[in-house]
UniProtKB/TrEMBL annotation:
Residues 16-307 form the Tryptophan synthase beta chain-like PALP domain. Keywords: Lyase, Pyridoxal phosphate. One of its GO terms (molecular function) is L-serine ammonia-lyase activity. Pfam families: PALP (PF00291). GO terms for biological process: isoleucine biosynthetic process; L-serine catabolic process. The keyword Lyase applies. InterPro entries: Ser/Thr_Dehydratase (IPR050147), TrpB-like_PALP (IPR001926), TrpB-like_PALP_sf (IPR036052). SUPFAM superfamilies: Tryptophan synthase beta subunit-like PLP-dependent enzymes (SSF53686). Its cofactor is pyridoxal 5'-phosphate. This is Tryptophan synthase beta chain-like PALP domain-containing protein.
Length: 310
């Protein structure tokens, strides 16, 4: 991908080709009183912010002599892993719930072997672990043996922000699924000594981090979530690292927000105003910021919003 900065970016794009865009300068009144910067990680070649994590897992797996990686996905991690494996010459098996994403077509184009399973993301995780063991492959899931590599990859956004901004933002707005990105960012924020607040956002009522907050993490019943065309990648009844993610958010004084489909679509429409084109689900962090800004009557300081997929 091109590494030329778009005219509305506040700094040169990082080594991965993802810009930081000053949304509040382009859309006055977006969040009164605040400077809103958008880290558009849909511009990775795979279209997914999970690409650095996938790359880190594959590098570690290859160094350990593995030749195949197996993962479960709602779509984004599968896209990122399929591309990372193709680049590294590693075989890849992706397990995807039937009817989700594009049915695995894009992953197949990258050379991945796609298994479709009935049920939910959690069912795909169970099947991926079974396949990994049966095939003698490595489990590349976000809570698998290379979990530290996953955190390493997801954490690269913080050094990129430090290089671009020079000072800590007031808040970061991050999509919450399994909780992995939140944990990784929290570790980097603490390592830098930043006082930045981390806010997590996911589909309202369809993720246990959202429904548990601010209490104790509690899984949802498997039939307690509702999948739509817009929230699909955000839906899970068990967030694999949800409890730790909640602890990380609380440690920064942040909170967790739920966004419904109408809010996801409104956020996507707002983002299109300055050339960012995530899916509705990929816009979830912006949906959380906009809802909070409206409820609070405005914000203050610099807020960074992470876009997660296209």
């Amino acid at each position: 991908m091109s590494t030329q900065a778009p005219p509305n970016s506040v700094a040169p794009v990082d080594a991965y080709g993802t810009p930081l865009i000053d949304a509040s300068a382009l859309i006055p009144g977006l969040a009164p009183g605040a400077r809103v910067l958008v880290k558009d990680e849909t511009r990775y070649a795979s279209g997914s912010h999970k690409e650095p994590a996938a790359r880190a897992v594959i590098a570690r797996a290859a160094a350990d002599g593995h030749r195949r990686v197996v993962i479960a996905t709602c779509g984004n991690y599968g896209r990122a892993m399929a591309m990372a494996c193709r680049t590294a010459g590693m075989a890849c098996t992706v397990v995807l719930p039937e009817g989700w994403s594009d049915g695995g077509a894009w992953m197949r184009e990258q050379g991945a072997n796609v298994h479709l399973v009935p049920g939910s993301y959690e069912d795909a995780v169970d099947e991926s672990r079974r396949l990994a063991e049966a095939d003698g492959a490595v489990d590349g899931n976000v809570d698998g043996p290379y979990v530290d590599a996953v955190f390493e990859g997801h954490g690269v956004v913080v050094p990129a922000l430090r290089a671009a901004l020079g000072e800590p933002p007031a808040a970061l707005w991050i999509p919450v699924g399994n909780g992995t990105t939140t944990i990784a960012v929290h570790r980097q924020v603490r390592a830098l000594g930043w006082p930045t607040v981390i806010n997590g956002v996911c589909s309202a009522g369809n993720n246990p981090v959202v429904t548990s907050w601010p209490g104790e993490y509690t899984m949802l019943p498997p039939d307690g979530v509702t999948t739509t065309d817009h929230n699909q990648p955000l839906v899970n009844w068990h967030a694999l690292q949800g409890a730790e993610a909640m602890t990380a958010i609380a440690d920064t004084g942040g909170t967790v927000y739920g966004a419904d489909d109408e809010q996801l679509l409104a956020a996507r429409a707002a983002l299109a105003g300055f050339g960012a084109h995530p899916t509705a689900a990929g816009s979830v962090a912006m949906a959380g910021l906009l809802a909070h800004a409206e409820a609070a009557g405005g914000l203050s300081g610099t807020h960074v919003v992470l876009l997660s997929g296209r």
